[in-house]
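Before the break, one more example. Copy the sequence into your notebook; we will annotate it together after we see the structure.
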Amino acid sequence: MRTKRFLAAAAAALIASTGLVACSSETESSSSSKGDGDNVTVKIGTTDADLKAWSVFADEAEKNGIHLDIVRFSEYPQVNPAQSEGQIEISKFQTINYQAQYNATSGKDLRIIGSGEINVLGLFWKDHTSLDGIDGQEVAIPNDPSNQGRAINVLVQAGLLKLRDGAPKLTPTPADVDKNASKVKVVAVDASQTPNAYNEGRPAIINNNWLQRAGIDPASSVAADDPNSELAEPYINVFTVSGDDLDNPTYEKLVDIWQSPEVTEALNEDSNGTAVQVQRSKEDLNKILDNLVEEYK
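Here is what the structure looks like once it is written out:
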């Protein structure tokens, strides 16, 4: 399958990255899940520890008798291997889609214990407030595997693209677009170049990180995906654990704390209002995960 070539390369990158794990803990504690009176310590990994939401999350967890030993990772590919090797107990950094790619390429079976937020992905077109006049335009989309399929589906939801019969529903590529039935063309570029396309006057799908760096108002999008749509499900951010910990009540409590009003408010501030909390059962989340793993194999 066409995905296997990408996945083979991704697997090699993951293997290489495991020898280069660069992480640090916010505490001196080297012991994991040890109680201190009525408190328990949980070693949790993330790439987002500097965000306000994580500071509020740690404070709220402490109020509930859970001390977070936050392990900071500098790159995404470092986290799942560290979890598989038992260096951390739980993580919160990735989407279901990213976890599915890891499971499929590594042969591991990390599981999802709860959901967090989904960051809405938008279509931006400088000096335009609607899709009027977009027919025939070339739309720049990110070319990385984590965002490309989702960007195409944003355009599908907006009625601008049609996919060929038999195309993968959740992970389409530009080759899956039915050009004759579509209103726009897509040009896949590095995600860092999507703001440049926007500034040149071309419509572009731009993810939140690059929106913030380019100073583009997230509210100015002319279209966006629906966080409640089936097509958006792979992009729900999740809490990941080993299979043995899928029913751990302390970790389930952390999911509840992340969904609290205090953390949600901080999350909205961090994301400029583009983050939407999603509450889905772990059964539903793991079903989405397993379906994606099969698609990536």
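Residues 1-22, 27-32 have pLDDT under 50 and may be disordered. The longest helix spans residues 2-18. Try to locate both features in your own notes.
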